[in-house]
From TrEMBL:
Signal peptide: none
InterPro entries, sorted: HTH_MarR-typ (IPR000835), MarR/SlyA-like (IPR039422), WH-like_DNA-bd_sf (IPR036388), WH_DNA-bd_sf (IPR036390)
PROSITE patterns recorded: HTH_MARR_2
Pfam families: MarR
Name the UniProt record assigns to this protein: MarR family transcriptional regulator
GO biological process, one term: response to stress
Domain called HTH marR-type: residue spans: 1-145
MF terms (GO), sorted A to Z: DNA-binding transcription factor activity
Species whose genome carries this gene: Patiriisocius marinus
Protein origin, superkingdom: Bacteria
């Protein structure tokens, strides 16, 4: 198990500062693990998030809806969607009632990619936690926000 004090060779003035820095350090650690996992699939974690959102939608949805549902609010969501369009994982659909609005839907290729990702051997990043500890952690993170 990790120990932030040893990992970054630092001492902290109090436990609140240590906890905040630990959240930031752990978020970076998770991001690195996610980037490594998704690299062989040719997408980023943010692009996966977009595909995941679209898979859960019953129909094509607006770019704004996708942005609102993203776990990580990416100011470059449109660019991420451009890359997914170029890879034929999503497609743009013109809105019949408003020409200014573009809807996005996942393609068959995008669905197939998600199926491959779903069956890949993904490491459980929370394997050191029990289900009860994971629930407590989740509640504490909600409390922070």
């Amino acid at each position: 198990m990790g120990d932030l004090s040893k990992d970054i060779n630092s001492e902290f003035p109090n436990d609140k500062i240590k906890a905040l820095l630990n959240i930031m350090y752990t978020a970076s650690w998770i991001q690195t693990k996610q980037n490594t996992f998704f690299k062989p699939f040719g997408i980023s974690p943010q692009q996966y998030n977009i595909l995941r959102i679209l898979r859960g939608a019953d129909e094509a949805i607006s770019v704004q809806t996708i942005k609102d549902r993203m776990l990580e609010r990416a100011p470059n969501a449109t660019r991420l969607m451009d890359k997914l369009t170029n890879k034929n994982f999503i497609e743009r659909v013109a809105c019949a009632s408003d020409r200014r609005v573009v809807h996005i839907k996942i393609t068959h290729q995008g669905q197939e990619l998600l199926s491959q990702i779903d069956t890949a051997n993904r490491k459980d990043l929370l394997e050191n936690l029990t289900l009860k500890e994971a629930a407590i952690l989740s509640d504490l993170l909600d409390k922070i926000r």
